[in-house]
Amino acid sequence: MTSRKPSARARRRDDFLNSAGGLDDLFAAGRRGLDELDARREEARIERACSSKARYDTKADALEAIAACAEHGRRGLSGYRCPHCGGWHLTSHPRRG
What we know:
Blueprint: H1 6-19, H2 23-51, H3 59-71, E1 78-81, E2 88-91
Protein name: IS91 family transposase
């Protein structure tokens, strides 16, 4: 059985905190892990939203691509300006808003 004296409890608590590197270190490590996770999620979101798609420099280029697709039977496409790269991408989804 361990001692119940306040000094013994304080020593055990200090030993625990020192073995864990201190709570500040623990919280900082947790925050770093969350920041890294957020960065990976953001990269994946940009990959899905922009990097994996064909990019057209101008609206006219995007409209040409839409017309070419229509000639081959693909209808219902529209273009939109990408907030990530500033170029134009095509979509088959109806416009929101």
